[in-house]
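User: Second chain of the day. Same drill as before.
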Amino acid sequence: MRLEIGFGGGEHLTAMAERYPDWGFIGCEPFINGVAKAVTAIGEKDLTNIRIHDEDARPLLDALPRGSIDAVDLNYPDPWPKKRHWKRRFIVPANLDRLARIMKPGAPLRFATDIESYVVWALEHARAHPDFTWEAEAPRDWRMPFRDWPGTRYETKAKREGRRPHYLTFRRCKPDCG
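Assistant: Same format as last time:
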């Protein structure tokens, strides 16, 4: 089961579900316009391997069984650019705890953003968390899209506006890491 948090209009979610029809997907998005767009695309493409959670992701993360998720995608989340709002960013210790609980050992947490301060923030928080490791070995590892990346409209907008996307992969530690 793959989880996408904040799927926007569902472009990435539906592209991945189409590419991997044998996988199950859960998409979380609290904004009704995004949910409506995704549900329309799901119906048009006749995708049966997606389930939608149309509210805040945190209650779902608390309800999912331990070790039930194979991968998590967090693509272009709200960066809350003002410093006084940074506490609202999704990558915080409490949410990393939630993710660590539901992710299988070795599962990837893929994070894409074009906001430099959020890259630094994510690296500081995820690398400090005992249940995650950062996979990068060289700069190309966070400058190149993920291997099966279909792209998003936010990525297209970022590039058009001259911002560089970053693609970070954190791995849920196996019991012997750390």
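The chain has one domain: 2-172.

User: Great, on to the next one.
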